[in-house]
Write a structure and sequence with these properties.
Elements: E1 14-23, E2 30-40, E3 45-49, H1 56-64, E4 71-76, E5 87-90, H2 102-112, H3 117-130, H4 146-159, E6 164-168, H5 176-193, E7 196-200, H6 204-210, E8 213-217, E9 224-229, H7 238-243, H8 245-262
Parallel strand pairs: 3-7, 3-8, 5-6, 6-7
Antiparallel strand pairs: 1-2, 1-4, 8-9
The protein binds adenosine-5'-triphosphate (ATP).
GO molecular function: ATP binding; ATP hydrolysis activity
Keywords: ATP-binding, Nucleotide-binding, Transport
Organism: Gordonia spumicola
């Protein structure tokens, strides 16, 4: 029997049709985003890159359902996004409850997802293992490192069986080594859960390493100026990828596209 906590393999189709977002009124009115049309297939790992202010977070908020477009439509599997139900979100800061234990934070999300109390322990153990945090369940959040806290945030986002996972610069505040380790793990988690992921970053390196597809936004108003399919094998060894010529070429292509888009 399939695990009730995992979404259907074919779930997670994200569609943006003529999406625009404006802010303010009168002379202060700005168009931050769009128009944008995007079809994101189930299981795709789409990385959004673009200069500061190009509307990456604004786009993510439309898909999360935290905000609604001024024009156009966003759907996940044909329905309007519902916060907390259609997509799990990981932010730059982990936003955990510091006085709770690691397990306590994951349990909260499991409770919200409707997992019966009797099943939560086994499920939180499984999630913590998936993000490399086995053995830390009883520790308080303030006792663990920033990288470990971000792992808890990822476990929490995976706890709710949403078809889509949204990540807004989740590793930006971490040191280079921790960042690389988390990139390795997110790549693996994404391949094993098959969840559609939209990941925002400023880093061409991160985009090349993680994405099955990389979308570059222009400067304001953010529009799609490049849409690059990654040639890198999904199941390749992380170290092998980072040393490969294909990876270097893809990173260069993304970097050039971002620089061109910012002009
Ligand atoms: N609630 C808001 N009210 C007014 N303007 C906003 C609001 N949210 C975003 N903006 C504006 O929309 C534009 C896009 O912002 P957004 O945060 O989406 O860009 P970004 O690409 O994520 O930037 P960064 O890479 O710096 O995080 C910016 O000019 C920003 O000031």
């Amino acid at each position: 029997m399939p695990d009730r906590q995992e979404p259907e393999p074919q779930a997670g189709r994200v569609e943006l049709r003529g999406v625009e977002r404006r802010f303010g009124a009168g002379a202060e009115r700005i168009t931050a985003l769009g128009p944008i049309d995007l079809d994101i297939a189930p299981g795709e790992f789409l990385v959004l890159v673009g200069a500061s202010g190009s509307g990456k977070s604004t786009l993510l908020r439309q898909v999360a359902g935290f905000d609604t477009p001024t024009r156009g439509t966003v759907t996940i599997d044909g329905v309007t996004p519902q916060p907390g139900r259609t997509a799990g979100v990981v932010f730059q800061q982990p936003r955990l409850f510091p006085w709770r234990t690691v397990r306590g934070n994951v349990d909260l999300a499991l409770g919200y997802a409707g997992v019966p109390r009797s099943q939560r322990r086994a499920k939180s153990d499984e999630l913590l293992e998936r993000v490399g945090l086995e053995g830390t369940a009883k520790r308080r959040v303030w006792e663990i490192s920033g990288g470990q806290q971000q792992r808890v945030a990822i476990a929490r986002a995976l706890a709710v069986a949403t078809p889509v996972l949204l990540m807004d610069e989740p590793f930006a505040a971490l040191d280079a080594l921790t960042r690389e380790r988390l990139q390795d793990d997110v790549r693996l988690v994404s391949a094993t859960t098959g969840r559609t992921t939209i990941f925002v970053t400023h880093s061409a390196e991160e985009a090349a390493f993680l994405g099955t597809r990389i979308v570059v936004l222009s400067k304001r108003p953010g529009q799609v100026v490049a849409d690059i399919a990654s040639p890198l094998a999904r199941d390749a060894d992380p170290e092998h990828i980072r040393e490969s010529l294909e990876f270097a070429a893809l990173r260069g292509e993304i970097s050039t596209a971002v620089k061109d888009a910012a002009q």
